[in-house]
Amino acid sequence: MLRVAIGLAFRSFSTCSRHSTKVSVLGAGGGIGQPLSLLICSNPLLSNLALYDVKDTRGIACDLSHINTNSRVSLCYSGSEELEECLKDSEIVVIPAGLPRKPGMTRDDLFNTNAEIVQSLAKACAKYCPTAKVAVITNPVNSTVPIVAEVFESAGVYDPRKIFGVCTLDTVRAKKFVADLKGVNATTLHVPVIGGHSGITILPLLSQITPKLSLSSEEICSLTERIQNAGTEVVNAKAGGGSATLSMAYAGALFTDALLRAGKGDPVVECAYVESNITEVKFFSSSLLLGPEGVTEHLGFGTLSAYEEDKLRALLPELDRNITKGLQFGKQ
């Protein structure tokens, strides 16, 4: 059955007692938002799922409400009144809203349109659920997360422990690509990914794979480039039909589950893009210890190989430009 299949796919979902929690998905009607809402709805730690999009979400909410889970699905529409109701009492807000990439586009090409969308939604979050944990999926994440941070800062409610860029898809891809290459089970692997969430700013730490695997220099170079360009691989394969929606929904649901489990007191380690001082750039993705209030500890990135050190030096200027662009937009 579908319920069993979803449960098996999300083997990391907690099976412990439910914790009454409201999660709001902003952009629930989109290519990422619909499968993401389905997967979040299946999480046993969820009690209330609120949906929002610029278009009517009643059909999506009705569809999801027929699934035999313990969560209640509410519905919202466009407009300030509906958005307020959607966000009120939310513990977690997930934002996949925005335009997808098309062939030939970079994530930066999406900036102007998606930056305005994220800024508007961030203002609503800062007003209606200022203490919620906000997980940003909308690209370009390297810039949209600084926009959200700046909006919350301007509103006087910024808590850097609670604003996240969802980079889980990079770690999911890293595990899958390594597993396929070496003929091992992807669910048994741990592959840290640091930096940002686009192109060269994505740095998989293949020297730190656990359980330890032997990779040649050629394999490391090939895997790194594929992980960095995996989003473009999907965009090109869909030939104008969209970007990575299903895999991003899967990764977004995994990260939401991490926040849900951390919210009930389970110590959870997850990679995410947050305000950070472990490098010279203001925002950086690395392993984090999560707790009820969000980030509990930045765990750093350990000892890098010479190849990874070179890649880190190369990505920082690009990541800094992305961050500056977001901060400047957020201050407008």
From TrEMBL:
Residues 21-165 form the Lactate/malate dehydrogenase N-terminal domain. The active site is at 197 (proton acceptor). Keywords: NAD, Oxidoreductase, Tricarboxylic acid cycle. Residues 168-329 form the Lactate/malate dehydrogenase C-terminal domain. GO terms for cellular component: mitochondrion. Its EC number is 1.1.1.37. GO terms for molecular function: L-malate dehydrogenase (NAD+) activity. It catalyses: (S)-malate + NAD(+) = oxaloacetate + NADH + H(+). The keyword NAD applies. NAD(+) binds at residues 27-33, 53, 114, 137-139, 248. It is an enzyme of class 1 (oxidoreductase). One of its GO terms (biological process) is tricarboxylic acid cycle. The keyword Endoplasmic reticulum does not apply. Substrate binds at residues 101, 107, 139, 173. NCBIfam families: MDH_euk_gproteo. Homodimer. Belongs to the LDH/MDH superfamily. MDH type 1 family. This is Malate dehydrogenase, mitochondrial.
